[in-house]
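Data deposition worksheet. Section B asks for the primary sequence of the deposited chain exactly as it was used as input, without tags or linkers unless they were present during the calculation. Section C holds the resulting structure in token form. Section D is free text for depositor observations; keep each observation to a single sentence. Incomplete worksheets are returned to the depositor.
Section A, Depositor: J.P.
Section B:
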Amino acid sequence: MSVEFVVYAHILYPTLIKCTSNEDREFILKLCSIDCFNILSRERLLLACCAKGNAEFFNFLFPLTIQHYEEEGEDTYEMLILPLFIECLIKKNLTIYRVLRSLGYTLADNPIDSLSIYIQYSFKDLYQDIDQLISNIDPQMEKMIATDLLECAIKNNDFVGFKHMFGTYVKLPAVYHSFYEVLAISNNLVFIDYIFKNRDKCFPRRMGDKKVNQFYCKMFELAYRYRNISLLEYLIQENCFDIDGMSPKQLELFNSFIDPPLKSTLNDMHLSFHVFVYLVDHDCFDNIKPFCKLLCRQPHYCEYLYRNQQNFPNNQLSFQPLFDKIICKYIKTDDKWYRYQDLLGQLVKRYECKLNDSHYHYLAKFTKGLTLNDHVPNSLFLSPNYKIPPKPSRSFLN
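Section C:
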């Protein structure tokens, strides 16, 4: 199938299901027949109904399609019903899902297979279906199912589903370790906040304070590992744990977060923007120098520094040290020059950096280097009265 046809079909089927006249629908049905070489696909029309929530066209075509499958002796469930259910979940449009349920169809006869589909595509707003399926599973599978469904709720920001699971099926710590990691990665604090403020629903009544404290200490450790600043701050500000109950490793992490807070993360190649924001907003640094390597990897972070200079001494921040370091230390080859030339232009135009004598010999070896690839057309180096300075020593800017 050509790319052109795929694009055409993507537009065609959603358009066809809008047809309401009997003549149009009969013509569409004819194009789905073998007599017309199956120009149109019944299945794709029904999938379009699922995606768009078009119950009217679905109710017209679905019974005829079921009849066709039965006449051909084909597997109705595997070939038709299951893909329709899944399409509803993928597109997060439950109109046809509910139509299928009203016709007596269920997602699957096998509860485990059904739950795996819900977990993959989200079970949001389908809690009664989940209840029905869980009631039929082997009790030995409950821990695995509870873990998977809680993780699914967190990943899909389904707070209602999250509460439903704790209110009906699970108590901590009766989940697998993967749940703690998914919770530690999430920046949506409603989940940890619900656990903290609803101890009676989330932990067994007989569980002692020591065990509960271990849960929050564990969450702190994982949040630190995944650099989830918002979660770390929540755990500390809400006094979720007692540091006397921390292991030596956890206590070491806690102390390193408090003073100095996560400064070592600036060397992390995968430092996220929210961690960077935390470091800026909490007055962790006095100047731009510690940020230089990071800003070379993530130049768009410069704008946040520029707009938040009030977090630095005298409410101002000079970008000149970054500018100097890129020119005198980082652009040693043509590929590095190509990589950094636009950032250098931005530093001049937006962040008020200036060319000076110390830059000359580092830029002169590159084509258009003296004008930063025309970002600075009136460069001081092009002045007829400019005197070329002596070459700098190797120790410069180390």
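Section D:
The chain has a mean pLDDT of 88.
Residues 1-105 form one domain.
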